[in-house]
Amino acid sequence: MARNIVSGFLSIFGGRVATVVITFLTTPLLVRLLGGPAAYGDYKFLMSWFALLMILVSSGVTDGVQKFVGESGRFHNWEEYVIGFYVRTAVALAFAGAAVVVFASTRPSITRTFGQRFDFYLLLLAVLVFSAQFRTLVQRALRGLELERYSEPLRILDTGIWAVGSIALVWAGYGVAAVLVAHIVGSLVVTVVGFGFISREVSLGAVFTSTPGYFPTRELLSFNGWSVVLILFMTSLYKVDMIMVRTFLTNDLTGQYAAALSLAEHLWIVPLSIQGIFIHSSSNLWSNRRVRAINRLASKTTRYTLMVSALMAMGVAALADSFIPLYYGPGFEDAVLPLLLLLPGTIALAVVRPIYAIGQGSGTLKPIVVSTGAAAVLNVVLNAALIPQYGIVGAAIATSIGYSVMLPLHVWSAHHVGFDPLQDLRPVRVLVATIVAAVPIFATSRILDGPTTFVVVPIVGILAYALAAIATGAVTVTEILDVGSSVPGPVGSSARSLRGSTDSTVSGPPFSRILTVFGVLLFATGIALSITGTFVPGAGPNAPDIGPVGTSDNQTTTAPPPSTTTPTATTTDDPFQVTSSTSSDGYLPTSTSTADTTKSTTSDMTTQDTTTSTDTTTTTQDTTTTTDTTTTTQDTTTTTDTTTTTDTTTSSTTDTTTTTDSTNTTTTTTTSILP
Q: Is 656 helix (H, G, I), strand (E, B) or coil?
C-alpha cells in the first residue's frame, strides 16, 4: 500500500474507534435513562427513517465531493469549483428533504400509527436534515483534500457533543427529543469548524459564483444519481429490517433487535475505515490506469478484512450471552440469538465494503448498482416473509442472508469493472487459522467468569489468531512489516529496519508450523482447564465437594417419605467409613462406626416377590453379629449369611422387614439401643 493510503486509513480508523468507544460508553446509560427498550426503540426507528431519507438528500453530494475533489489537477481551481458546485447542490437538496419531513409531521396517519409525540420528533428531524447535510459535506471535502487529520477529529467532536448533550438533556427529562437536539447541536458545531479548515486550503468564493462552461457538470450529476441509487440499496440492507420490525412487532422487540444489530455493525469499524479512504485514493489509481496496483490493493485488502472481521465475530459470539444483559441491562436477553444469526452475513458485508469502494472509485457504477439492488430486493422480500412469522429471529435470518449474497454479487461486479479482489485471498489458510484460533477463544470465554472475561478473551483471541495466521501462511511477516513500514513515525522506522532483515516466510515447512500452532494452543487450553477444572467434575480450586474419599460404591441411601417418622440406619462395607442416621423428620441424628470386621456371604437366586428380613444381635466385647437376609424379587432371590466380630461398647437389636412389589415398598424397622 502507498504510504498516504495507510496514513489516511489510520486517521479514519482512529476517528472511528474513538466514536465507537464514546457511543459504546454512552449507549447503556442512555438506554436506562430513556426508560428501557421502548423509548430506545422509538429513537432507533426514527434514525432508521432519517438514514433512508438522507440517502436521497446527501449521498450523491458527499460521495461526489470526496471523489472529485480527490482528482486534483484536472485544471486550475478544480477543487474550488467542485466544492462550490456541491455546496449549492447540498442546499437545494436539504430544503427538499426538510420539506418532506415537515409535510409528514402534519399527516394524521403518523399520529394514529405512532402516537402524538412523533409529530414533534419529525419537526426536529427536519432541522437535523440541514445540520447533518453540511456536517457530512465538510467532513467528506476534507477527506478529498487529504486532510483526514482534521475530518476525523471533527467526527469525534460531533459524537462527543451528542453523547454529553443527550445524557444531560435526557437526565433533565426531555426523552427522545433531547437525543435529537444533541445531534443537531453537534452537527452545527462541526459544520462551522469544518468550513474554517476548508477555507485554509481553497477559496470559498467559488461557492457564490457559477462554474465555467468547461466544468464537467453532467459527469458529476450522473455520478450523483447513480450514487443515490447505490447508497439507497446499500443502506436498505441494514435499515429496512429495523423499519419492518417496528411496523410488524412491538417497540420492545424493536429495541432488542436494535441492540443486536448495533453490536453486529461494530464489526464494520475496520471495513468502513478502508472504504472511507479508498473512494478518493482508488480514484487516483483508476485515473492513471494502474490496474495492476489496484488488483494488489484489492486482493490484499479483501484478505485482511476477512481475517479481522472473522476474529471480531468470534469474540462477539463467544461473549454475547454474558455481554448483552450486562451492557444493555434487563429486558435485552432475547437479543443474543438474533446477534449470533447476524454474524455470518455481517462478515460477508464487511468483506464487500472495500471491494465496493474501489469499484465506486472507478466511476463505473452500473454493475455495482445491479449487484447491490439484487441483494436489497432479496433482503426486503425475506424480511417481509419471516418477520411476521418468526419475529426478530426471522429478521436476523433474512438480513444475514441479504448481507451474505452481497459477496458473490460484488465479486462479479468487480470483474465487470476490471479488477480481481480474490487474486490473493488464500481461503484455505484463512479458514484453518480461524478454526485454530476459535479453540482458545471459546474455551477461555467458558473458563472465565465476570468482568475479566471481557478483557482476557480479546487478548487471547488476538494472540492466538496472529500466531495461527502466521503459522498457516494466511499472512506473512513481510506483509505485516510492509504495512507497518507505511505508518508514520517511529513505528514505520522500526518496521522498515526489521523488513530488511526478515525473510518473507517463517522458517520451517508449512505443515510443521501448523502442528506447532495446534500444539501450543492445545497446551495453553489444557493448562487453563486444569487450573480451573471447568470441564472436569471435582477438579480445580473452586470445585464442589463430592464427598470423602473411600465411600463405598455399593452404598445406597434412600430418603424416606416425608410422612414417615420411623428412624432408619445406614451401614457400609468400608471399615473406616463414618455414616449418619437421621429420622425422616430431620432430627435426632446418630452415628455408628464399625471396625475389625470379617464377613462371609452366600447367595442364591430365584424369581419371586421381594421380602427382606434382618435380625441383628450385637453384644459388648468381641461381639458376634449374625445377619440372615432373604431377598426375593420378581427376577432375583438373594440369601446372605453374615457373621461379624467387632469390639464395641454399644448393643443394638434391630428387626427389619421389607416387602417390595413392582409399585410399592413398605419398611418396618424396630431399633433398641442398650447402653
A: strand
Q: Is 550 exposed, middle or buried (0-12, 13-18, 19+ CB in 10 A)?
A: exposed
Helix (H) or strand (E) holding 344: helix 336-362
> Using CA atoms, how far apart are residues 23 and 128, in angstroms rounded to an integer?
19
CA 385 to chain centroid, in Å, comes to 25
CA distances from 97 to 54, 114, 121 (A): 8, 21, 15
pLDDT tens digits, residue range 555-613?
A: 444 444 444 444 444 444 443 343 434 343 433 344 333 333 333 333 343 334 443 33
Phi, psi at 583, each rounded to 5°: -70, 160
Q: Nearest Cα to 486, choosing from 159, 3, 134?
A: 3
pLDDT per residue as tens digits for the range 510-541: 555 555 555 555 555 555 555 444 444 444 44
Cα–Cα separations (whole angstroms), residue 268 to 63, 239, 669: 19, 15, 73
Distances (CA, A) of 648 to 279, 620, 675: 94, 6, 11
- Tell the burial category of 174 from Cβ atoms under 10 Å away from its Cβ (0-12, 13-18, 19+): middle
CA dist 650 and 673 (Å) reads 7
Write the DSSP string, 617-646: E--SSSEEEEEEEEEE-SS-EEEEEEEEEE
Answer yes or no: are the C-beta atoms of 87 and 194 closer than 8 Å.
no
pLDDT in tens, 149-196: 888 899 999 999 999 999 999 998 888 899 999 999 999 999 999 999
Closest of 477, 481, 450, 201 to residue 319, by C-alpha: 450
Cβ neighbours, 10 Å, residue 398:
26
| Helix 366-404 × helix 240-248 angle, to 10° | 50
Q: What angle do CA 637, 638, 643 make, to 5 degrees?
A: 160
Closest CA to 130 of 94, 180, 161: 94
Euclidean distance between CA atoms 32 and 43, whole angstroms: 13
Helices (H), 533-578: none
pTM of the model: 0.62
Does residue 667 sit in helix, strand or coil? Answer: strand
- Specify whether the CB–CB gap between 436 and 468 falls below 8 A: yes
DSSP conformational letter for 202 = S
